[in-house]
Design brief:
single chain, 442 residues, alpha+beta, five-stranded mixed β-sheet, 12 helices, 67% helix, elongated
Length: 442
């Protein structure tokens, strides 16, 4: 093997690293089922080129970077670039790059015996640039074909991980890393034997190709089965959540029926004593409350409508003035209804908790759901006490809460769901209250 990096120039870095970084980023994100925009891919490629220039032309001039170490450093840099550009959690970015690098490494390793068999040359030498060029072009074409197939058949190897667990991340990351190391070792042995002019026969070439093809396929099948198991577990939890919401809805209906009986008795009493104007005012107030609730039920998505209806009933039971304004249809939601309900449900719950200790007339929560040219906008505002900048800085940290132990996962989950669909969430707090504003692009 080569002990250190060969001499490279800016032109070589740009012509090689720029397309490779874009294709590798697209492959990595496609493994997670994420569709980045063209500008995002260009930005990732450009930032990776800048990093490679710094690595090879600045750091490489000061110290000798062992061959192979630069790949690890480049992978770490690509992980951070994807994390910043795509606004993905660090674990998701790391998994994406591990997936992409493992597949790309497999393609590169399989290209060596293929090109060596055709040209009868040791073409994996980094000094042999003219022979590397056709190999590089073919690698790009094969990688783009794999990306097309992943998007065409909607293949996602981590689909369904709504709630990532630490052990899940380390298990999958460790599995992908072990696979990459194994492929590297096999490729290194093949390279050293080929470099030593070992007389390979067709069975040896074929065996090498089959082994290096079987390793990633088996690994991906295992990961796919594991993620399917997680998805089934989450779907079960979703059904339990739905049953819980139905139970809350039934309790709300019982409360409203009980209150309706008292309202009828009150109106009957007012009519008996001939207080017709008082009876009219009493009925008008009750009708307005029923009309407001009915508007929520008329939204074009029954899952969202049921949640809003439930939250309205809970607010009424807690004597909270919850005002919900819906100016958007939900048929084109860019995320699952359960995820959308989780976002607005957590925000409404937090807002109601923020005003729970205030005097009854001051318990006000406003919810606005609308659409603009950017996508869906959800804003939840409460009139509770303001939040300090120190708390806002940590408010989305998992486990962080000012309400005691065992809390602090709701807003963390909201942020994960928003970032999952490339959205944005902002918090503003002043003496008039606190507002959470969520943007979900279409």
């Amino acid at each position: 093997m080569v002990d250190q990096l060969p001499e490279v120039t800016f032109t070589i870095i740009f012509l090689y690293s720029f397309p490779e970084a874009m294709v590798l980023a697209l492959l990595s994100l496609s493994m997670l089922g994420i569709r980045p925009g063209f500008r995002q891919i260009l930005l990732i490629g450009g930032l990776q080129v800048l990093f490679d220039v710094l690595l090879f032309l600045v750091v490489g001039k000061l110290i000798n970077i062992p061959f192979g170490i630069h790949t690890v450093v480049q992978a770490a840099a690509l992980t951070m670039i994807i994390h910043r550009v795509m606004r993905l959690p660090c674990k998701s970015s790391c998994l994406a790059v591990l997936f992409g690098f493992s597949i790309y490494l497999c393609i590169e390793t399989l290209m060596n015996p293929f090109m060596t068999f055709i040209t009868s040359s040791v073409i994996v030498s980094p000094d042999n640039l003219w022979l590397i060029i056709p190999m590089f072009i073919i690698k790009m074409m094969i990688t783009l074909l794999i990306i097309f197939l992943l998007y065409r058949f909607n293949i996602r190897f981590t689909d369904g991980w709504k709630r990532e667990r630490a052990n899940s991340f380390f298990l999958v990351a460790g599995l992908m890393f072990a696979q990459s190391i194994l492929i590297l070792l096999l490729g290194n042995q093949y390279y050293m034997a080929d470099k030593g002019n070992t007389d390979f026969g067709i069975p040896i070439h074929l065996s090498f190709v089959l082994v290096n093809t079987a390793i990633p396929v088996i690994t991906l099948v295992i990961i796919r089965q594991y993620t399917d198991f997680i998805r089934n577990e989450i779907e079960t939890e979703a059904q339990l959540d739905t049953l819980r919401h139905i139970e809350e809805l039934l309790n709300t209906m019982r409360i409203q029926r009980h209150n309706f009986t008292h309202d009828l008795q009150a109106v009957y009493g007012l009519l008996e004593v001939k207080e017709f104007q008082e009876a009219r005012n009493y009925l008008k107030k009750s009708v307005n409350e029923v009309a407001a609730t009915s508007e929520l039920v008329k939204t074009d998505n029954m899952g969202v409508a049921a949640l809003l209806y439930t939250k309205t009933g809970l607010a009424e039971a807690r004597n909270i003035d919850l005002r919900i304004t819906v100016k958007a249809g939900f048929r084109q939601l860019p995320l699952e209804v359960r995820d959308f309900n989780s976002i607005i449900g957590n925000l409404i719950d937090n807002a109601m908790e923020a005003v729970a200790l205030l005097p009854a007339p001051e318990r006000k929560v406003e919810v606005m759901i609308c659409q603009d040219y950017r996508g869906y906008v959800v804003e939840v505002r409460n009139c509770g006490s303001s939040i300090s900048p120190e708390v806002i800085a940590n408010i989305f940290t998992p486990g962080f809460s000012t309400k005691g132990e065992g809390r602090g996962m709701g807003l963390y989950g909201v942020q994960k769901l928003v970032h999952k669909c490339n959205g944005d969430i902002q918090v503003k707090s002043d003496r008039d209250g606190t507002s959470f504003r969520v943007l979900i692009p279409e």
